[in-house]
Request: fold
Amino acid sequence: MQRARGVPSLPGPSGLGENVGLLRRLLDEPIPVLDECAARFGRSFLLGAGPARIAVVGDPAHLDEVFAEPSTSYRWGHALNVIGFIVGPTSLIVSDGDDHHRRRSAVQPAFARRRLDGWIPMIAAEADRVIDEHLGPVLRRGGALDLYPVGKDLVLAITVKAFFGNGLEHRTAEIGEIFDELQAYLELPAARQVPHRIPGTRRARVRAARGRFDRLVDDEVARRRATPSADRDGTDLLDVFLDEAASGLSGAEVHDQVNTLIGAGYNTTAATLAWTVHRALATPGVWARLRDEARAVLGEGPVDAASLPDLPYASAVVHEALRLHPAGAVAPRVAVVDVTVGDAVIPRRTAILWSPHLAGRDPSVWREPLRFDPDRHLDPTAEERAAMDAAWVPFGRGPRRCIGFALAQMELTLVLARWAQR
Reply:
């Protein structure tokens, strides 16, 4: 394809029918289309035309250029970002410009290293609970167990305690039901997420579920504001957000940020945990190495912040699982200026889907890219490290990087090590 005046564009299909078909399939089930188009056109390509134009960027060198652009080169509050219906209009995910900067600055202190370290004993305790209640009994009987719902139970319990302390622990199951309803809607094909206000529909049920969650948060906020601050430990995220003098967040913004952070950290982390355990068990020698490392480091004593740096192999296993199985195959933004990638130009008003899936399987970076090999992350050369850093983007990069990435990596590493140990 060529833009007007001879400015080169990314490669892609030329026929209208093929473009429409690929776009429809991409929005329905992206991974097969990403792999198919990458094999034909390269890891960055253009689909569609005019207002229905999508640039998929999965070449690591091109990703460097996309992420190097200032935030003002893009918009996130756009029609393609259907998640806005779920997370709310003031969510970090759909905020632009000064609003995004202010809201991110307000939320960032909630993920300070000191606070993350304080959650480590709780994460280990929850991992132990799941072993005692779910994994242990099944393993003793010699049966099989679907780990995904077990992981969801574990991640949800950790998330609720990190966000609300013990204040909403008794409503964990209810919170899980609400977010399962929201997640199921987000996983529908794009054509079934067309905005409308027709009562009695799937979309109406999702709107009602979001309302239930907001009321649940309101009740907890009211309870805390009636409790002297000296009687609260201040270690959970909601207390950070309620410190209005420091955060500057309105009530609506608190709702949307809490909703966003739970939604972004619940099903995605549970899915990654399931993939990580599956690949570790299915790859000869990996689980035994995890067990040996965990037993040497964690032992019989308490698990604390000092344990985490001494689990390099568990961290490498998590990195490798995220490389092959990122929580999102693509993530959208809309260009408001022309964006140069390599020798091509992505025209303004194009929806850009950057792809950690394609970058994480690029054979020019990853030797035998489909092979699960945690060792590739342990002792690379400086040149290999730079190439892998450019291609390993499951959480994004720059000022729009997933704000909870450190919590997710810490949680996955600790749970994996604890399960392997026991």
